[in-house]
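In response to reviewer comment 3 from the previous cycle, which asked for concrete evidence that the modeling workflow produces usable outputs, we include below a single protein chain processed end to end. The sequence was submitted unchanged, and the resulting structure tokens are shown without manual editing.
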Amino acid sequence: MSAAMDTESTYSGYSHYSGHSKKAHRQGRDRHKSPRSKDGSRSEKSVTIQTPPAEPLLGNDASRAEEGQDDNWGETTTAITGTSEHSISQEDIARISKDLEDSVGLDCKRYLGLTVAAVLGLLVFLTPIAFILLPQILWRDDLEPCGTVCEGLFISVAFKLLILLIGTWALFFRQPKADLPRVFVFRALLLVLIFLFVFSYWLFYGVRILDSKDTNYQGIVQYAVSLVDALLFIHYLAIVLLELRQLQPMFTVKVVRSTDGESRYYSLGHLSIQRAALVVLENYYRDFTVYNPALLTASKSRAAKHMAGLKVYNVDGNNASGQSRAMIAAAARRRDSSHNELYYEEADHERRVKKRRARLVVAVEEAFTHIKRLQAEEQQKAPGEMMDPREAAQAIFPSMARALQKYLRTTRQQQYHSMESILQHLSFCITNNMTPKAFLERYLNPGPTLQYDRDRWFSKQWTLVSEEAVTSGLQDGVVFVLKCLDFSLVVNVKKIPFIKLSEEFIDPKSHKFVLRLQSETSV
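The workflow returned the following structure tokens.
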């Protein structure tokens, strides 16, 4: 209970915004106002709407005041709280309502497709059984005796249907991973093929068997067996088209994130553009580092600061073109020296990161030395109060909290780590007897997107933009874009070139060498 009280007291001021000065708050507010022009128009027409993170460890705007803080900021600042304001235009409301309507339409389309596939599958499995049972029900007395041959065919039909049922369940009845904008062409073709095939069998059965009341029961059973065999071959065709065809790599795609330029390369087979986009998104959440917009604000604020420092005075009533030329000339002169400022800013940032990283490593190592795992025979003899992993994490967390807070602020990762997530990770490391280095790996190195909480990075809807039809296959030179609310992924497709290998034989006996001696050598 004491450890929990210490933890709560340590983070009592970090509920929504971390501690920062009022001066830094005014500076951050001025930065937001700087991109506006004189006529009051906004520089960006779109407004990003995000759900607020639940119980963040640090405030999102704390990084704006980072440059003006020293290492002793925690003792000299005043903690303030506030509420965030969002302006939403009529266009944003219309876009949100359109997204809701599109999501409802996608759900209806998905359930409609599942319903059609389920009804068709049920018809396929009941058709052979109906072919065998209908003569027994309608004109059983007129049927010719079949004997052992029909019994063997019954067993064959039963096992083939069982194999077909298992194969259909493994291939088609899967949890859908995404809602694609268009239907899967090969799957739709297979459904149409199966429907036409079963319909033709029923048509022939009704004309040649039901109408004439055929008495050759063995022939009727063999007719049902041929239907099951044909369905098995269609299932093999489905495996080839849906699974095997795309396994051989034929294209190389380059995926570039539009905001920071991070890129990856992937190899894909024969896929449609929409299915290639789905593969790209699956690999994106696994391979790309989490998108951090706080890292992109430094260059924007630097450019705004340079432009804000330029002032033109109209003394003798010159026209606006003269002022613009003077503004451009002054900006060019300042641009010549801006690389020095960038160099020293990056050097100072790296120094501050290394310093706070060293403090964090030392604090975590010292905190881990205060806990010890008790063996089974020591639990009865151990004096004092024993704790479970959660209580142990709460006990040692306050000693490392300030160092971790400063490091996350410096590296601008505070919006991705809440106090609850850090405590859960710490208790997980304690439970599995992990080292301090293993605990710090998540915070020292920005990990993939899947490593973080879904509510902080997951985009519910992506938009596929392509000049080609999304159901068409990949081709050399095709470019498509995947857009979400904050950024976009630009995908460029290149075909793997044809490689021609030739063979050259070398006789092992030809590996003979001669030692060449010279007067200058030491041999």
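The chain has 14 helices and five strands. We consider this sufficient to address the reviewer's concern, and the full set will be provided in the supplementary archive.
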